[in-house]
Amino acid sequence: MISILLIAIAALFFTGIINKVKAKIGGRKMPSVFQPVYDLIRLFKKGAVYSNTTSIIFKIAPSVYLASVFTAMLFIPIGNLHSLLSFHGDFVFFTYLLGIGKFMMIIAAMDTGSGFEGMGANREALYSLLVEPAFFILAGSVALFTNNISFQELFLHLHMSSNLSIIIGIAAIYVLMYIAIVENSRLPVDDPKTHLELTMVHEVMVLDNSGFDLALIHLASWFKFSIYGAIISNFLIQVQWPVYVQILSFFFIQAVFAFTIGILESFRARNKMEKNPQWIIMLSAIAIVVFLTALIITNKIILH
Amino acid sequence: MQTDNILRIKNNSSVDLSEIIILSYEAFSEAAIQLLKEEQNHCVSYFAYRKENDLQFLMAVADDNHHDIAIISHLLKDGETQALESLTPAIFALHIFEREIHENFGVDFINHPWLKPVRFSHDRFNQNSTINNYPFYSIKSHELHEVGVGPIHAGVIEPGHFRFTCNGENVLHLEIQLGWQHRGVEPLFLKKNNLQRNLLAENIAGDTVIGHTWTFAQTMETLAGITVTEQTQMERALALELERMAIHTGDIGALCVDAAYHLGAQVFGILRTAIINFTQSWCGNRFGKSLIRLGGTYFPFTEELKQDLLQILARYEKQFLEMSHLTYRLPSVQNRFDFVGNITTQQARLLGTVGLSARMSQVVRDIRVSHPAYAYQRFPYETMVAEKGDVFARFLLKRKEIKRSIAWIRNLMEHFSFDASQTKKPVYNLRLKPNHFALSLTEGWRGEICHCALTDQNGALKHYKIKDPSMHNWKSLELSLRNLEISDFPINNKSYNLSYCGHDL
Fold first, then answer.
1. Under 8 Å between Cβ of B174 and B489
2. B445 vs A65: CA distance, rounded Å
3. Both B325 and B426 in a single domain?
4. Residue from B171, B252, B262, B494 to probe the interface with A (highest A Cβ count within 10 Å)
5. Tally of domains within chain A
6. What is the rounded CA–CA span in Å between residue A194 and residue B53?
7. Residue A303: inside a domain, yes or no?
8. Torsion sign over Cα B441, B444, B449, B451
9. In this structure, are residues A220 and A66 in contact, taking their beta carbons and an 8 Å threshold?
């Protein structure tokens, strides 16, 4: 139960930290870390505007999206702090829960009948499709490595003891970080700050959402970021640590994660759209490295 | 028809209308084609105006090698059929001029590939042709779809409509339809007094204030037969180079925004501000409005301003070189800019692109070199080209031009001593030569700006014609998008940064 709270709290600061880092590096005056939260509160107070061409799908999509992300959040443990729900193979369930939310957003975008939104939905669907193998190969490898198939058990038994397992740790964190970036449409796949519809991926999909609905969508994507941050932190937090150290290090890792994204976004340009698929497939390739390492450690492949 | 006996004038000069030989249309088109098929020649202006009930055509062809401008003319009588054989199939660059004449006067150009409306001007011939019933170019297929962008544009850009015919993410064809910024500038010039005209010239295109105003001032001063002092000439050229630096810097910053390289965007934004703030400290307006006036200026350049400018330039140059080098060498920026929106030399020549859009594809076309005003004769400017004609080439060229402008300004500061007493106050009470035609060309930051003016027998303005470089270059943007991804459009558009209001007038 505590883990959900922790993830939710971390989510509130996440975007604020990224913005702050980017502003500092760009030499601008920094907005408050709470600015995104203020914006969210403002949006929650507003009503939503619906176009005449939209149907019920468009209206329920943001709620379904948030609900799916929230439910997915219930499966994430933090160190010793157990997740609310856990069963064998729950990481498959977790991925497709997120998938349902995304699916609803995509068909809601199609529902508006706008040329822009269809374009964005098309891109988002493609990138989600390409990023999926990376996550499954990674999760499968870690499952193989620890001999467990639920998030809870998986992380409880994850020990970075041998040299080879450190490779798993580093590669997994790298891949997860970029999966989070793709899933949340950040640089280099997408630019959340752009005003150019033709180059948008996620932003153009939610172009017609306003007020309360937009707030739900924002909240859901913050949770998503935080979920991936929590998964990453699980690779680093050791279960034998005292609980308060685990909680502190969880927040520390989330902050470092946000900080890293801020730095990455400040010093690079985005990809050309046509190079994105290639770039995302690269994540699967790295996940395969994790898989091979896991095979070696578990003696499924014997090196001479 | 020999092209030797054609009337040739210099840039910034006027000629009596009786000296312009009126040719038959056969001779006119033969002369035009003969002139324009030479690489050193390009058409700077081609327009028609009402002469009583007849329609007189005037074409000005600039010769870059001989540094002069050939003027040919044709008279279409009222009683004749209002249809002429189009020159576009032979010389494609003329398509836009013929479309404009067709729109304004209803003259049919036979065999013109597409007499598409230019801007739906208020005084157009066919009042039934409006944007609401304009048939956009379309390709019928189940696999293709259309994406319409604008005229209400993202950000604070001007309005224009872009219609993409796409196959998935790939653009097969882009059609641009402009005209939303049409204010009727040209007819307004005829109605106003000289001060009002001067103000109007400043507002033809808000980002090319110096370019257009200087061209206007040269045209009118030529017609009035007055010359401004040497110092004023230098000041105007200085202002033009400052404008070029400021806008190019802003453009590079905007390219960084589109590439999501926010660090670069912010630094270039700061640098641009340094330059336009200097212009403000000079004349009170960041874009140089009120600096250029007919016959003189209220804001002479002084030695104190010179010291300020040199200091600002020193600081600007250091930071600009550092940041632009960083941007240039950043792999992700190279990846984003390279191979996007390529225009070959052949295409550029065909389209008759001018200015930066020509030089990016190895076409040497620069008025400062080929038809220099006095300031550029005394302090020569060496032009340069880029090779590949893509977004990266445009970025590179802007960067190089800024560096060269700094060098030019330094040279001017070193060898010319400014003295406020050497300037004259503006004069608006001009007596224009009757029955004259004057033409002025200036290399603005976007490319060549051409203003033509004609007077009647009383010395009043009879016709005023403005040509912004964007007139030619919009077609280049359309072409450069073929077979690109639709997501490459914004960065491509930004790298051209063409004018909507300069085109719409």
1. yes
2. 49
3. yes
4. B262
5. 1
6. 53
7. no
8. negative
9. yes
Neighbours of A302 (CB within 10 A): 7
* pLDDT value of residue B219: 93
Count of all residues that appear for chain B in the document: 505
Task: Give B346-365 pLDDT, tens digit per residue.
Answer: 999 999 899 999 999 999 99
Q: Which two tokens stand for residue A271?
A: 């990809």
* Cβ-contact B35, B41 below 8 angstroms: yes
* B295 and B411 share one domain: yes
pLDDT of the residue at B1: 46
ipTM of the complex: 0.86
- In tens, the pLDDT along B413-452 reads 999 888 888 888 888 888 888 999 999 999 999 999 999 9
Burial class of residue B342, CB neighbours in 10 A (0-12, 13-18, 19+): buried
> pLDDT at position B155, please?
59
User: For chain A, which ranges sit under pLDDT 50?
Assistant: none
| Range B242-267 average pLDDT | 92
- State the pLDDT confidence band at B4, using cuts at 50, 70 and 90: low
Question: Under 8 Å CB-to-CB from B220, ≥6 apart: which residues?
Answer: B194, B197, B294, B430, B432, B438, B453
Residues spanned by the domain of B84: 7-122
Distance in Å, alpha carbon of A141 to nearest chain B alpha carbon: 31
How far is Cα A199 from Cα B163, in angstroms, rounded to an integer?
16
Verify that B385 and B238 share a domain, yes or no: yes
**B interface mutation test: which of A117, A119, A124, A198 has the most B CBs within 10 A?**
A198
Residues B34-73: pLDDT tens digits? 999 888 899 999 999 988 888 999 999 999 888 899 999 9
Domain count, chain B: 2
Domain that holds residue A67: 2-297
Q: Nearest CB to B259: which of A115, A119, A269?
A: A269
Q: Who's near B52: CB < 8 A, 6+ residues apart? A: B78
- Helices A211-236 and A2-25 cross at an angle (nearest 10°) of 100
In a domain, B226, yes or no: yes
Q: Which of A197, A268, A274 sits opposite B154 (nearest CB)?
A: A197
Cβ contact B490–A271 (<8 Å): no
| Chain B contacts in chain A segment 77-116 (CB below 8 A) | 115-116
Q: Which amino acid is at B468?
A: D
Give B-chain residues touching A28 at CB under 8 angstroms: 266
Q: Point out which residues pair with B466 in neighbouring strands.
A: B451
How many residues would you count in chain A? 304
**Minimum distance, in Å, between the CA of residue A274 and any CA atom of chain B:** 7
Q: B437: which strand partners?
A: B15, B454
- Residues of B221-249 as b/e, b for ≥16 C-beta within 10 angstroms? bbbbeeebbebbbbbbbbbbbbbbbbbbb
Collect all residues of chain B within an 8 Å Cβ-Cβ radius of residue A275. Answer: 335
Q: Is B170 contained in some domain?
A: no
**C-alpha B64, offset from chain centre:** 17
Q: Compute the distance between CA of residue A284 and CA of residue B205 in angstroms, rounded to an integer.
A: 51
